[in-house]
Amino acid sequence: MPFPLDDMRWSLACGPGPDGHWHGWITVRIRATALVPLGLHPDQPWSQPNSPSPPRWWHAAAERAVRPSRPDPAQ
User: Fold this and answer.
1) DSSP conformation letters of 10-26
2) What pTM, to 2 d.p., does this model score?
3) What's the CA gap between 41 and 20, in Å, rounded?
4) Torsion angles phi and psi, residue 3, rounded to 5
5) Which of 41, 34, 38 is nearest to 8 (CA)?
6) 15 bridge partner residues
7) What is the mean pLDDT for each group of 10 consecutive residues in the chain (75 residues)?
């Protein structure tokens, strides 16, 4: 891992979702000062987008491309 354990915190939460199925959530937190050497700290200018976001149709097409083409029989 590129981070010392003192700079990381993680947690797991589980519970039923609105559809009644159980879901799990993992949260990972990294201390901001640990991100500086990687160029990922939000105060660094190159950590922000430097060009406009793609159009909405591009995002919708990308989401359709990753969805399964047939329904899942387990649901």
Assistant:
1) EEEEEEE-TTS-EEEEE
2) 0.45
3) 38
4) -115, 140
5) 34
6) 23
7) 82 90 90 81 70 84 76 61
